[in-house]
Design the sequence.
């Protein structure tokens, strides 16, 4: 299979590429990334056998991993680089509630038009499978667990832009028969999260630098924390399993954990790895933050054939070990 991955130099992308190249055969990967967060050198976490190409003329589907610099807002580039692909994994996006509140127009154009450009590329080339990285954010405030049949009432601009992406996926499946699969990721953590700003990666970096960890609000807001290896397995199934076109799946652990609980577990795990004396403080609550969020994953288990295997304690341990000694994970 020829895989086109947008945003492949980012946290999820490098973990996915590592799993694809090490666990599966017959995979050829092409990455498009604007290098705003991840850089080609970050893919050394996955493999040292990659090639950064200077222009589209140098692209081919013979090298196991080629990377080209480009922005998902470039519609012509999207059509050009996707020719010959069997599946598109659309990871590139503005991520997070905070940036979307500060820059809602940028969040909208990046997440909505960027997704549209690659769905259009699927239509023009007859690419059958399109996997969309979504989130629980489209749902907004509700009494959890979140499931696929809940009505969406997004709280943040980020949630609204992801909901628009899901809507376009549905339209392109219904009208153009592109087999779209939307995966609503929980709060992802794991090795390779160098630039990630979510709570686990950010707190590990801050603790290693001797900084105080700041929790927004009282820490009772809940999230569903999913380890990268469970996530990449879901993406693989989303890209390869037959008969799931047009579907949305919650990809999380079906466990509700407060931010305070995960912070305390993280502090204990860091102490076991020699990172001691970590201090915690509380700051103001963030605008657009949902208070409770965890997922009902029964549909993913039944239809996608996916199961979450990693407990939080083991996932945190592997994540901290990577930050301390990256070469050993």
Sequence:
């Amino acid at each position: 299979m020829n895989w086109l991955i947008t945003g492949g130099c980012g946290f999820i992308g490098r973990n996915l590429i590592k799993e694809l190249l090490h666990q599966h055969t017959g995979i050829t990967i092409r990455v498009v990334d604007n290098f705003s967060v991840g850089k080609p050198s970050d893919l050394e976490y996955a493999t040292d056998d990659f090639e950064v190409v200077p222009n589209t003329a140098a692209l081919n589907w013979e090298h196991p991993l080629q990377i080209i610099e480009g922005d998902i807002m470039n519609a012509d580039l999207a059509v050009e680089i996707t020719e010959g692909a069997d599946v598109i994994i659309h990871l590139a996006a503005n991520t997070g509630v905070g940036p979307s509140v500060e820059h809602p127009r940028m969040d909208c154009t990046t997440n909505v038009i960027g997704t549209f450009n690659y769905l259009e590329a699927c239509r023009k080339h007859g690419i059958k499978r399109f996997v969309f990285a979504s989130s629980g954010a489209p749902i907004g405030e509700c009494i959890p667990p979140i499931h696929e049949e809940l009505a969406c009432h997004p709280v943040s601009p980020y949630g609204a832009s992801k909901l628009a992406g899901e809507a376009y996926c549905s339209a392109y499946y219904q009208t153009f028969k592109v087999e779209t699969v939307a995966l609503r990721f929980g709060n992802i953590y794991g090795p390779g999260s160098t630039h990630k700003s979510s709570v686990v990666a950010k707190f590990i970096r801050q603790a290693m630098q001797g900084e105080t960890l700041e929790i927004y609000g009282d820490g009772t807001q809940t999230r569903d924390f999913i380890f990268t290896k469970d996530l990449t397995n879901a993406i693989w199934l989303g890209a390869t399993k037959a008969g799931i076109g047009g579907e949305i799946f919650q990809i999380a652990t079906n466990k509700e954990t407060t931010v305070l609980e995960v912070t305390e577990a993280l502090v204990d795990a860091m102490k076991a790895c020699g990172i001691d004396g970590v201090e915690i403080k509380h700051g103001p609550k963030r605008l657009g933050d949902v208070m409770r969020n965890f997922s009902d994953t029964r549909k993913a288990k039944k239809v996608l054939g996916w199961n979450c295997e990693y407990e939080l304690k083991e996932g945190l341990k592997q994540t901290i070990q990577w930050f301390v000694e990256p070469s050993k994970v």
